[in-house]
Structure formats: structure tokens, C-alpha cells
Amino acid sequence: MAKERETAESPGGAPPLPPGLYFVATPIGAARDITLRALDILKGADLLAAEDTRRTRKILDLHGVKLAGRKLISYHDHSGPGARKALLEAARDGAVVAYVSDAGTPLVADPGFALAREAIATGAPVFAAPGASAVLAALVVSGLPSDRFLFAGFAPRSGRKAWLKAQLACRATLILYESPKRVHRILAELAEVAGQDVEMALCRELTKRHEEVLRGPISQVVDNIAGRDLKGEVVLVLGPVAPAEVSDAQIETEVGEVIGEMGVKAAASFVSDQLGVPRRRVYQLALGLASRNGDAS
């Protein structure tokens, strides 16, 4: 199935492609955001697989990539093991196999994880052709801290408040995808869990004609979209939430529960990690507690 690559060159004079499975990023909106390397792979692949073959055909047509007798097959999260087997066997047999999701980078809230895992487990070469990503685009335009961030995908349908609280505990910028139909609901939940004054950005239709970015405290963004029927792809970026102030009494209570088993130093270290409080502060309180209890261990 594979083309001869020892002497032939890929289209456009690009170097020959090593055989294997390629996860290729495609534009999230602006068609010209596709990379030159992505086009080389789509032109040079022996077999192409896509989350939605109709969308992929549009991308190929737009950029002048012809199938020329090559197969374009469907692969998504609901595809059975037989579909994965066909792709992996082709990659192991020396073919260049390219996989694309509807938009953006495969595996990032898109299909491809099971395919990548099985390819790695079976020894098939795996390559990434990076490019457009709504996660990184939203982070860049949000104006929020980018040194540490958590992408948590879509919030679950149930138990959302507890789930949001757990994500916010990471004390990093939080990035979420959400359906436009549920944006009002999740913003109300975020205001309740994180507080109305936490800075955020609502990013809609990134890189597209009707791109919109609303920045400010949660309460302000809620006011800005009140009564609106939002449409299009939505990414929410929430600034780090400051931890709640922990009192000395709370620290001593936590230390008192473990100090008998661990001793002062270990208890201080444990409680410091649990509460996110400086270790020196916890250690000083633990020493005082041990002294009052007559336990200097």
C-alpha cells in the first residue's frame, strides 16, 4: 500500500514522509490557519481517516489536495475496534496514515485517544503535526495568566458544581469548552462556586468572522450576555481562584488529627500540602499544639 519513499519526494518537494500514524491539526475557523506540514502530510499520505469525511473533503478541496484514488475513511469515538485495526495495520505495514478531527488538534476534546494508545501499544510509529487549537487560542486572547493552566474539556451534565470546585482547586487558569445552549447555566454555577469577581474571558467563534471575546469579572460577563441566544463554539477561560483564607484554628484542628501518628514535622508537611498553606506557618502552629499537649515528638 505504501509508496516507494527511498527516492520519491512528497508533493511540493517536501522530504519523504516516514511511515506511521500522523495526527494532523486542522483550522478551527480561518482556513488559512492550516500549516504547510499538514498539507504535505495530507497530500502524501497513503490513507486518510477523519472524524467527519464530509468536512475533511471540504478542507482538502479548499487547499487543492486531491485524493487521486486514495481512501478517505471515517473514524470517530464510536468506531469499533475493526476501524482502528485497519488503520494500525496499514501504519505497521509501512503506510503513511493521516488522521484529522473536525477542527483543531485530534485528542484535545476530539476523537483519537484510543487510536493513539493502541498504536503506541502495538509499536506503530506515531507523529503529531501540531497546529490550530481552540484551547491555546482562547488562552492567548483571554489576557489571563498563562504560566500554569488546566484544560478540563466539557463540564459533566450532572454533579457540575462539585466538579467545577475540584477543577478550581488547581489554582491555575482554567479552560473549559461549553455548548452555547448551556453557557448561561455554567456561568451562574461558576459565579456561585468561584465568586462573581473572578476574572474570566468568554471566547466565541475564535478565528471566524463573528469572533467575540468578552473579558471581565464573571458578573460582568453574565450581564453582557443576559438575554442573548449565543451561537457557535464557546471556550471559557477563568483566572486562578485565590484559596480561601485558612484560620489558625482550622490548621490546628487538622494537625491535631494526625500529629499523634506522624509526629510534628510529618504532620506539618502533610497538613501544609492538604490545605495549601506555607509549611513554616503550619510547623509553628504544630509545635505550639504539641507543646500544649505535652508531646514534643
Q: Helices, strands, pairings?
A:
Blueprint: E1 20-24, H1 36-44, E2 47-50, H2 53-62, E3 71-74, H3 81-92, E4 96-100, H4 113-121, E5 126-129, H5 134-142, E6 149-154, H6 160-168, E7 173-178, H7 183-194, E8 199-204, E9 212-217, H8 218-225, E10 234-238, H9 248-262, H10 264-275, H11 279-293
Parallel strand pairs: 1-4, 1-5, 2-3, 2-4, 6-7
Antiparallel strand pairs: 7-10, 8-9, 8-10
Helix pairs in contact: 6-7, 7-8, 9-10, 9-11, 10-11
Please supply descriptive tags for the structure shown above.
40% helix, alpha/beta, 17% strand, disordered N terminus, 297 residues, single chain
Amino-to-carboxy terminus distance: 71 Å
SS elements, strand count: 10
Please count the helical segments: 11
What about the largest sheet? 5 strands, parallel
Structural class: alpha/beta
Please estimate the helix content. Answer: 40-55%
Q: What's the mean pLDDT score?
A: 91
Query: Main sheet: which strands, in order across?
Result: 3-2-4-1-5
Shape: globular
Evaluate the radius of gyration. Answer: 25 Å
Assess the beta-strand content as a share of residues. 15-25%
Q: pLDDT under 50 segments (min length 5)? A: 1-9
Return the string of H and E elements: EHEHEHEHEHEHEHEEHEHHH
Description:
There is one protein chain. The protein is an alpha/beta fold. Helix content is 40%, strand content 17%. It contains eleven helices and ten strands. The protein has helices spanning 36-44, 53-62, 81-92, 113-121, 134-142, 160-168, 183-194, 218-225, 248-262, 264-275, 279-293, and strands at residues 20-24, 47-50, 71-74, 96-100, 126-129, 149-154, 173-178, 199-204, 212-217, 234-238. The strands form two sheets. A five-stranded parallel β-sheet has the order 3-2-4-1-5, with helices on both faces. A five-stranded mixed β-sheet has the order 6-7-10-8-9. Strand 6 (149-154), helix 6 and strand 7 (173-178) form a beta-alpha-beta unit. Helix 7 (183-194) packs antiparallel against helix 8, helix 9 (248-262) crosses helix 10 (264-275) and helix 9 packs across helix 11. The longest helix has 15 residues, at 248-262. The radius of gyration is 25 Å and the shape is globular.
